[in-house]
């Protein structure tokens, strides 16, 4: 019953999306008059889609094996959290989650958007309905999550054990919320291009969506990076895997968009560029999800290739992105540019920021798609790995960090006041750090050295905009910017420190052996079999000491039976100045010695701490914007009384 | 600006063409082994366990194609592969084996537990023949034609869905 109800809700929601599109395009009267009806339809569509998603969650929690999707992806023995998360740990469920977020975002825009004129809002809701309609069709015709099977199996077929991890249970939905939040920016841009109303009002309507999506993307990427770090057991935190790139590209576009929206909102400038970024950000989200889901690109995240589904989504993407880019090309000539500005000004710095972010985005896009394009053109099979990305994106990211030290200190339009005093603290710290690295660590790579120097310089530079302000009356948006930039500084120091100072040791040991790494001495203790709900494992106990006390680390080599898979659970000891990371490998049969892999990673935790700070900065800006809106409205109400 | 506004559209069109091509021409991930077409290296391995003959390269140039399975009793995927090898034997495939870094009693226990599809089993206690064969892990299987030439290499366990491919390779080696 639940499955049928869910499917019915999905069909109804699709019908409402069609109705919304028709009304917004002016079927049955002038679209302006129908705006209240459209609002209601959008809200109903969002709620029905949510109901369908809740139905699927219930099927997974009950392990209803008569539903094909549950039978193939779940198992009665699985802990309930993973049954719950299993809802979106597969193709159909994740697409339903995607559509649910899309429909709910449309509902929120319809219900709460007050900045825009009604015509633009109507066109925006038309665009949002068109997006939803395509993905509804994809679900209903090519990926029905509620399909039943004739004879229910006795037991389900499990879930990829690599995905049985609390962090990962919430990593995909966070990213999806971010991806799909960008759909609103896309629809707003389409609406504005149709009505030619590109201006500060549009920027203000777009800002909360981009900010919110960007915060979630930042958190999602940070969490994904940490997950890969401790779960894959390779000791790295970023692999330039196509799936990681698929999440990084929308983030880069959204970061650029976030900054160019400031120019559009405050000064009415960068109109064409901002519209382009709004279209690109969501296009990247769709392309990224599609490339990942269709298995077009080879990745550690294995997803089944299904040419029918792949073609269906490709047609959808071509229609949406192609139509939006065509609209842009035809209309952008009619959009007037805003007020002019000097190269040395806040606008100038934000243009530079956009330029560098876009170039990095281009580099990642080329690197991700190059193997595909090369094989299509020449038949040659190749892969593009970290050396390409690090050598190209790395230096550009450092230049961007250097710009970040300068940009926030500049004023709008034209900077006449002497800038040097405001730049001095950052520059002095950066130079001092640079000199210190030459003296204390002469052997580290140039990129790591510059990363350390710029990261250190960026710490005071990020906080400079707070200097001379009454802190309690400083707008939250300024606080947000400073904290987000500080987060970049912190993450950059973490990355540079990890790349410069990491110590690695691969050795074999028997219980009782001691291994020295960095400041630590690690003793291999007992190796015991342990059992979990659906796995068995060999657990090694490691006693790590540095000077005083002893900490006990437990690393496991887990063996899952359904499906048969082995995973390595790294043991990580976090200290104030870094992490000790240990992985147990296989036992050599001939000698009886165990492979043990150890890393000492000074300050590596700063990478993710920085990521969280960046997201926190975004959140503060979002809260500040919302609070200001509430206060303005309250004041308007009071003025009327 | 006038022409530049079409650039994103053109870039996107290129991406669509590449992706459409990939959908039309599915990826071929099969890695062709460099060993295919090469003569087997000369070797003579002692029996891996009492009561069963060992394996020498001369045994493999017997006039008809054979499958050589590189395995070990301590290897979990080898146990998963065992029923498929029995199925291949039932279909008339002649299978020999090389046991890597193993002890006779362990091999005997493995065969007792998972079944014995093998005619001959050579014991390669130091992985010398494994390395000469260019095999990097267990399990791996080689299709050898009647003249002792390697015709196909299968890396990893032979699973249910690989049976038809292995049979076809054996037929082609005839």
What is the element layout, followed by pairings?
The complex is a heterodimer of chains A (641) and B (174).
Chain A: H1 2-24, H2 35-61, H3 68-73, H4 80-86, H5 91-112, H6 118-142, H7 166-195, H8 200-231, H9 242-267, H10 271-294, H11 307-331, H12 346-378, H13 386-406, H14 420-440, H15 446-463, H16 476-501, E1 503-509, E2 514-517, E3 520-531, E4 535-545, E5 550-560, E6 565-569, E7 571-575, E8 578-587, E9 594-602, H17 606-640
Helix pairs in contact in A: 1-2, 1-6, 2-4, 2-5, 2-6, 5-6, 5-7, 6-7, 6-11, 7-8, 7-10, 8-9, 8-17, 9-10, 9-12, 10-11, 12-13, 13-15, 14-15, 15-16, 16-17
Chain B: H1 7-24, E1 44-45, E2 55-56, E3 66-71, H2 76-90, E4 95-100, H3 104-114, E5 121-124, H4 128-133, E6 140-144, E7 150-155, H5 163-172
Number of domains of chain B: 1
What structural category arises from helix and sheet content of chain B?
alpha/beta
Low-confidence stretches of chain B: none
CATH superfamily of chain B, by name, is: Glutaredoxin
* Structural class estimated from helices and strands of chain A: alpha+beta
Largest interface: A-B, 35 and 26 residues
- The share of residues in helices of chain B is 25-40%
Structure description:
- Chain A is an alpha+beta fold and 641 residues long.
- Chain A has helices at 2-24, 35-61, 68-73, 80-86, 91-112, 118-142, 166-195, 200-231, 242-267, 271-294, 307-331, 346-378, 386-406, 420-440, 446-463, 476-501, 606-640; strands at residues 503-509, 514-517, 520-531, 535-545, 550-560, 565-569, 571-575, 578-587, 594-602.
- Among the domains of chain A are: 1-161, no CATH class; 433-501 and 613-640, no CATH class; 503-602.
- In chain A, helix 9 packs antiparallel against helix 12.
- The longest helix of chain A is centred in the last third of the chain and has 35 residues, at 606-640.
- The radius of gyration of chain A is 26 Å and the shape is globular.
- Chain B contains five helices and seven strands, in the order H-E-E-E-H-E-H-E-H-E-E-H.
- Chain B has one domain (31-172): Glutaredoxin (3-Layer(aba) Sandwich), CATH 3.40.30.
- Chain B is elongated, with a radius of gyration of 22 Å.
- The N and C termini of chain B lie far apart (66 Å).
- In chain B, the strands form two sheets. Chain B has a five-stranded mixed β-sheet.
- Helices cover 34% and strands 18% of the residues of chain B.
């Amino acid at each position: 019953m639940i499955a049928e109800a869910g499917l019915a809700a999905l069909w109804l929601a699709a019908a409402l999306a069609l109705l919304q599109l028709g009304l917004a395009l002016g079927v049955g009267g002038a679209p302006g008059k129908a705006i209240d009806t459209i609002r209601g339809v959008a809200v109903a569509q969002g709620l029905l889609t949510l109901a369908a998603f809740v139905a699927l969650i219930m099927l997974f929690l009950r392990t209803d094996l008569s539903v094909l999707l549950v039978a193939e992806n779940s198992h009665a023995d699985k802990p309930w959290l993973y049954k719950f998360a299993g809802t979106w740990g597969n193709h159909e469920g994740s697409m339903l989650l995607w559509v649910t977020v899309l429909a709910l975002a449309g509902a929120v825009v319809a219900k709460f958007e007050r900045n825009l004129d009604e015509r633009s809002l109507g066109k925006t809701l038309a665009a949002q309905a068109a997006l939803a309609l395509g993905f509804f069709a994809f679900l209903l015709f090519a990926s029905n999550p509620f399909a039943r099977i004739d004879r229910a199996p006795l037991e389900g077929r499990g879930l990829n054990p690599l995905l049985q991890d609390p962090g990962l249970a919430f990593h995909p939905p966070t990213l999806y919320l971010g991806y799909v939040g960008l759909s609103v920016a896309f629809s707003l841009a389409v609406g504005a291009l149709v009505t030619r109303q590109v201006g500060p009002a549009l920027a203000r309507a777009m800002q909360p969506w981009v900010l919110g999506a960007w915060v979630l993307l930042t958190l999602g990427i940070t969490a994904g990076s940490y997950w890969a770090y401790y779960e894959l057991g390779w000791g790295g935190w970023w692999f330039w895997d196509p799936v990681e790139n698929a999440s990084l590209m929308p983030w880069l576009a959204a970061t650029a968009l976030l900054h160019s929206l400031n120019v559009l909102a405050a000064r009415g400038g960068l109109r064409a560029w901002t519209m382009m970024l709004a279209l690109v950000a969501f296009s990247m989200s769709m392309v990224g999800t599609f490339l990942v889901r269709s298995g077009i690109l080879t990745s550690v995240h294995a997803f089944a290739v299904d040419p029918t589904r792949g073609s269906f989504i490709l047609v959808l993407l071509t229609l949406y992105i192609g139509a939006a880019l065509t609209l842009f090309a035809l209309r952008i000539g009619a959009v007037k540019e805003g007020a002019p500005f000097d190269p040395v000004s806040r606008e100038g710095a934000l243009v530079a920021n956009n330029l560098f972010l876009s170039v990095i985005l281009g580099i990642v896009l080329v690197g991700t798609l190059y193997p595909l394009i090369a094989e299509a053109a020449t038949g040659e099979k190749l892969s593009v790995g970290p050396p390409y990305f690090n050598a190209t994106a790395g230096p550009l990211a450092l230049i961007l960090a250097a710009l970040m030290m300068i940009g926030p200190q500049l004023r709008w339009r034209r900077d006449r006041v002497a800038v040097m005093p405001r730049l001095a603290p950052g520059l002095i710290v950066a130079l001092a750090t640079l000199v210190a690295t030459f003296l204390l660590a002469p052997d580290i790579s140039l990129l790591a050295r510059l990363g350390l120097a710029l990261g250190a310089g960026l710490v005071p530079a990020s906080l400079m905009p707070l200097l001379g302000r009454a802190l309690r009356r400083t707008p939250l948006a300024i606080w947000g910017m400073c904290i987000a930039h500080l987060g970049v500084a912190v993450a950059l120091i973490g990355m540079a420190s990890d790349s410069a100072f990491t110590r690695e040791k691969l050795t074999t040991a028997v219980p009782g052996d001691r291994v020295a790494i960095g400041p630590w001495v690690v003793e291999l203790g007992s190796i015991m079999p342990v059992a979990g709900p659906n796995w068995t494992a060999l657990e090694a106990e490691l006693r790590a000491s540095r000077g005083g006390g002893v900490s006990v680390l437990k690393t496991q080599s887990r063996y899952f039976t359904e499906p048969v898979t082995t995973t390595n659970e790294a043991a990580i000891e976090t200290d104030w100045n870094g992490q000790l990371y240990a992985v147990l490998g296989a036992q050599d049969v001939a000698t009886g010695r165990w492979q043990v892999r150890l890393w000492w990673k000074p300050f590596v935790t700063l990478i993710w701490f920085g990521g969280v700070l960046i997201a926190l900065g975004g959140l503060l800006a979002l809260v500040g914007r919302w609070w200001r809106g509430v206060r303005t409205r309250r004041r308007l109400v009071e003025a009327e009384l | 600006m006038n022409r530049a506004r079409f650039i994103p559209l053109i870039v996107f069109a290129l991406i669509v063409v590449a992706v459409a091509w990939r959908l039309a021409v599915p990826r071929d991930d099969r890695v062709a082994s460099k060993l295919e077409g090469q003569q087997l290296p000369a070797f003579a391995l002692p029996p891996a366990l009492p009561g069963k003959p060992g394996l020498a390269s001369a045994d493999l140039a017997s006039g008809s194609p054979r499958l050589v399975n590189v395995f070990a009793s301590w290897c979990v995927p080898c146990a998963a592969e065992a029923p498929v090898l029995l199925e291949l034997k039932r279909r008339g495939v002649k299978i020999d084996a090389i046991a890597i870094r193993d002890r006779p009693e362990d091999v005997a226990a493995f065969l007792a537990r998972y079944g014995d599809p093998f005619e001959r089993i050579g014991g390669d206690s130091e992985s010398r023949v494994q390395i000469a064969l260019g095999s990097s892990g267990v399990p791996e299987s080689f299709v050898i034609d009647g003249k002792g030439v390697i015709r196909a290499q299968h890396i990893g366990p032979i699973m249910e869905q690989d049976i038809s491919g292995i049979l076809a390779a054996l037929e082609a080696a005839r």
